[in-house]
Amino acid sequence: METLYLVFIDPFVQMVTAPDFFLQVLWEGFVSGVLYALIALGFVLIFKASGVLNFAQGIMVVFAALSLVGLTALGVPALISFVICIGIMFVLAVGVERMVLRPLVNQPDIILFMATIGLTYFLIGLGELIFGGEPKTMVTEQLLLPTGSTAFDILGGFLILQHIDIAAAVIAIIMVAALGFFFSKTRIGRALRAVADDHQAALSVGISLNQIWVIVWFAAGIVALVTGVMWGARSDVSFALQIVAFKALPVIILGGLTSIPGAIVGGLVIGIGEKIGEIYWGPLVGGGIEGWLAYIIALAFLLVRPQGLFGERIIERI
């Protein structure tokens, strides 16, 4: 009886009796969720255009952030380093299209997926060779990102907002909105959606798959760079960040592999859900559930709606 109380009643009692702390938990989960959604967008962009689940998106986040920190350490001003890193992401996009995607066109999806795994370990080796394996500090202030925190009196207590978290949430929301506009309102965006619907039909009307692939990998690279900066500013820049980036996998499972709104909703569900689970139910199992709870949520969701909240149900006639 006591166990049932601790699992099903006590956490909600804590939420009601300490609403200011519960609001703090919600805010931290919201910030994490928005950043998860931003990472998931990189997966969604590439999958929509090529049908490939890009396993390398996580290491792209790390490689972009390490490149920025490494250039700054060489004496390059941070803002100029950021622009150079955008160029690095473009070179990476062109290289992936020329050396990975173009030779493997019309191959089964599993072949392309395995190629992105190979790309992952290539970038890990290249990153360790150039930057070393030790954690590095993000150049937050040089990038004109805010530091410090502000406390608000609320609900009989106080809510502490880290300025970098506010900036991360705002920047992520702006990028999500910009990508949504890009997909729905621009000529290139319509071409991307055409490629996503049918590669052969897109080719028949003169859309270049090679150009589209460069564009989406470049867009995913920019997303990776911004994500790396935001996560790096909240912690250290290290190869451990790719573990955080893999939280995008349960996000796209919840939202759907081809849906930008799904990435947003899925990110918020995972971010807030794992934070609430860690704080209120984590102590019951010794803590540390934040690392794996997102995958349990995604697994449970798969049993109910395998295609995700906004994914397309695929019907095959036999």
From TrEMBL:
GO molecular function, one term: transmembrane transporter activity
Residue ranges of the TM segments: 25-47, 59-90, 110-131, 166-183, 212-233, 239-272, 284-304
Keyword annotations of the record: Amino-acid transport, Cell membrane, Membrane, Transmembrane, Transmembrane helix, Transport
Domain of life, source organism: Bacteria
Membrane topology type: Multi-pass membrane protein
UniProt record similarity statement: Belongs to the binding-protein-dependent transport system permease family. LivHM subfamily.
Descriptive protein name: Branched-chain amino acid transport system permease protein
Species whose genome carries this gene: Amorphus orientalis
